[in-house]
Amino acid sequence: MSVPDPDDGSIGPSLARRLGPFDAAAIVISNVIGGGIYFVPIIVAGLIPFTGWLLAAWLFGGLLAFAGAMTYAELATLRPHAGGEYVYLREAYGPLAAFLTGWTSFVAGFSGSIAAGAVALAEYIARFVPALSDPTPLLTLPVPWVNLEVTRQALVAIGAIVLLSFVHFHAHGRVVHNALTLGKVLALVVFIALGLAWGHGVAANLTSSHVVANPAAGWLLALPPIMLTYSGWNAAAYVAEEIKNPNRNVPLALALGTIGVVIIYMALNVLFLYAMPIASLAALDGHLADSVAEQLFGVAAGNLLGAFAIVSLAASISAMVIAGPRVYYAMARDHVFLKSAARVHPQQRTPMRAITAQAVWSSVLVLSGTLTQLVLYTGFAVVVFSGVAVMAVFTLRRRDPGAERPFKAWGYPIAPAFFVAASVVMVVYQVVNEPVPTLAGLGVIAVGVPVYFLFAKKGRGSFSGQ
């Protein structure tokens, strides 16, 4: 399959290799550490009877994420282009499979997550400016199938999306993102350290237990939500085309980012258990961070936690604003997305049109009120496409065994095989336990098939990467 060299200048201005390993690792860390870690531990505690088993489940999930990251590192150094699994699926399984992962990323994966994060950010800002929490629509825009409601909260959310998208129009957007990530990590480290050192917790909670309905199956049932909380470990692969010395720095960024997240997640779970026994953790109604902070430091900690949440959510949105457009840029360069999304700013060397397209659709999702359903419907697609992408390492090694591979996946073939097997288990779990959202998600993905053929027909006669 012919793929243009991103550095040969034949397709106009190209993305610039300006990211170091720590820049890329910061994208991984902020992409992964989002809202999931503040409600999934409640679900996991309800499924697992012993604290030791609970911590082991989170560690196992981290090891699976690391296995996936090291497999992506091989694929990214073999094909150091923008787009992540879009590129790997295209190389291994053809353009339609690749398009469907990119389509899902645009419709819901990145855009929906950005919208959800922005709405949550607006809610935390409203904690300090209560007038912004007024849900009364200022304007209603009727469009087919749904009404777009403009509220104060929606305007704040859209403002955050527009601001961070504008920041990443510019080459130095990475500096802002690194600052947000550093603030996020430092706040977490301080929260954990102060909580364990001076918080009003009980060490005996770390050995507590409780009764669950099915202890034998609980550990297995806890794996899908844990792995969804780790999703985003592959974020550095999306920007491989912009990483300096990718043969060295892509694997390093994926390793540093994933290991950093595992350490933080393990420490947070220890802190949660230190604050309350596993039975109390399982009984929470969803306000995990607030409950833990109040238990450790008192009610006054709530506002401080709210300020941290604003920085944390901004960092997560920023990471997705960086990663998502690289997928659409790669699709447009293959002539299976909006043509303008392949354009790179001649001075800033960023995919400004792709960033704009994502910002516009994310804003529409904020106004539509459908983003929760979209993210729910396509959550399993994250597992499906990452599992299929990891499978691509087997396909490409068999198809082209003599190709130069600057980095080879650690633990091959056992580690990638375990990751694929875990992905299958998680997909089966979601199909059995959540059939309606899964079928709806399959419908969203299936809509991409005719859209692909429409784009492919329009792009016929010029480079399409096919």
Quick overview:
The chain has helices at 21-32, 40-47, 51-78, 85-93, 95-128, 152-167, 173-198, 215-230, 235-238, 246-275, 278-282, 288-297, 301-333, 352-368, 371-399, 414-433, 435-458; strands spanning 139-143, 146-150. With 466 residues, it is mainly α.
Task: Provide the descriptors you would attach to this structure in a database record.
17 helices; mainly alpha; 2 strands; two-stranded antiparallel sheet; disordered C terminus; Amino acid/polyamine transporter I; 2% strand; 466 residues
In what range is the share of β-strand residues?
under 5%
Which structural class is indicated by helix and strand composition?
mainly alpha
CATH class: Mainly Alpha
Taking pLDDT < 50 over at least 5 consecutive residues as the criterion, the unreliable ranges are 1-10, 461-466
